[in-house]
Specification:
It contains 5 helices and 4 strands. By secondary structure, it is α+β, with helices and mostly antiparallel strands. The structure holds zinc ion. Zinc ion binds next to loops.
Length: 165
């Protein structure tokens, strides 16, 4: 028998768990609009990165505490975390965020990886704007804003990686 799900649901779908408040999944669920638990390690919520009428964001917590986000409308993880006011590294448990070692170059491996993934997402944004411009399309205000956001996020990724501009 599973003990931890035996309390009747009250309030938000995950409020009955006894996990710590510092886990990545809590950070995500606290910021989501009415996350609904569908399994012990799964939730569904409205995606904050697009105009979501019905819940299309799947949230999953892996055994090591990493949060997997998937929007069925196709939003990128970077867009979802940014809309939540989080960074991609917030999806990893703290023990993974900083590899415990004194050998310098081995530290913060996961941050490098998430930073690179983030840069890739932003590069795709910039590339699609370049294609639009090449086709003679005008960029509207929101597209320009998004490109400026891309630059900001790449700068953020550089600082996550321990560099500065
Ligand atoms: Zn979405």
């Amino acid at each position: 028998m599973m003990q931890k799900n035996s309390r009747p649901g009250a309030g938000t779908a995950y409020a009955t768990t006894s996990r710590s408040n510092n886990s990545p999944v809590d950070a995500v669920l606290h910021r989501l609009d009415r996350a609904k638990r569908t399994a012990p390690d799964r939730w569904i919520a409205r995606c904050p990165a697009h105009d979501d009428r019905r819940p299309s964001l799947s949230v999953r917590e892996t055994e090591d505490g990493t949060v997997l986000l998937h929007c069925f409308a196709g939003c990128g993880v970077q867009d979802i975390t940014a809309a939540l006011g989080l960074s991609a590294s917030d999806l990893y448990p703290p023990s993974d965020r900083y590899t415990v070692t004194n050998t310098g170059p081995m530290t913060r491996i996961v941050d490098y990886k998430t930073a690179l993934l983030g840069i890739h997402t932003e590069a795709v944004v910039v590339a699609s704007a370049a294609v639009a411009l090449a086709n003679g399309e005008a960029l509207d205000e929101s597209a320009v804003e998004r490109l400026l956001t891309a630059e900001e996020r790449i700068s953020d990724a550089i600082s996550v990686a321990g560099g500065g501009l």
